[in-house]
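Quick one before lunch.
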Amino acid sequence: MSLTSESPVAVLCSGGDAPGMNAFLRAVVRLGLNRHQIPVYGIRDGYRGLVRAARQVDGDAEALYAMKQEIERNIGNRGLIDAQQSIIKMDHASVSGIMGKGGTILGSARCLDFHKPDVRREVIQLLDKLGVRALIISGGDGSLTGARLLAEESDLRIIGVPATIDNDLQFTEMSLGVDTAVHTLVWAVDHFIDTARSHRRVMVLETMGRESGDLARMAALASGAEMVITPEGGALTEARMRSLAEKIEGAMTRGRGHAIVLIAEGVKFEPAQKRNGAYILRDAFQSYFQREGAPFPDLEVRPSVLGHLQRGGHATPGDCILAARFAEEAWKALLNPKGINGITALRYNKVEIVPFGCPDLPERAVHSRAMDALHNDLASW
Ligand code: ADP
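Model of the adenosine-5'-diphosphate complex:
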């Protein structure tokens, strides 16, 4: 099957938003229009927008006709203004001035209904009736699973694009949004250092990353945070927390005035705990520093869960460039009649398409361990 100017390619952003998604949308639209002369439909709110549109039509010929009319009438920014319009024909101007803007102009969402095969079938039928033959889907692990299922259950051409600040997709060296999130974390650490130094405090900052510690360890390496705790290091027991506190206290004894500790959200505790890691660690550190006869009983520990701050902000040049490279490779794959369905990935610094369900890059784990060792030596007191 080859794509033509009669068969638009649809693009959507799904799951957690990531900086760089807008640069990616811009690149997909501009490459479609300028390089390939193929129209691009933007889908609002990820899979939720597709499901909403399928329900709006619900097999009704008149509703389908009305939707086609709406898509052709409200092009670009006119369609984007109307929050009810789920499918928008994108034009040059609709992606002007959005390059570095955080978030996504199309919106992103989670959609539980998309887990149901019959709902996906309705979506596939709608896309068929609209003449859409291919989709480019950006998002994290869950979104890419949805993309794989769509590919398996239809004859649509589907390309996924990894976009998540968590850097937990192990088949690619980087996902869209990671570079910006690391940048934001370095900024945050810099701000916390000012107050930590002034008050001689220990700051425990909790980062995102889901089950992966990559975001935390990259931020630690780039910011100079004194300590980083990741899920890959194993569960935190009382004994381990005490030995971390001892390490900080030892550094204070040797003249250190403050410490920044990064803890990734995916770190587990033994016994299991429900609270955020930053608070658990604060309590453990504080009670160690205040024990009978301790040298620094007034040493304060302040926890902070950095949360969604990490997902926002202006995308870095690194993310904008990666977005353009991913978009270009996605188009190449779609236009290659022998091209496979799959996901764009950065491997050995080259962008390529890997099949859905592709195994992890073994170098990722090696690289993470090397980063931990490097941080340890750079930050040791
Ligand atoms: P992320 O893509 O950031 O990992 P989620 O895991 O929440 O975020 O997934 C985003 C969306 O992808 C879900 O709300 C759902 O619509 C779709 N999705 C996730 N997992 C599946 C699945 N197993 N089957 C079908 N769709 C899925």
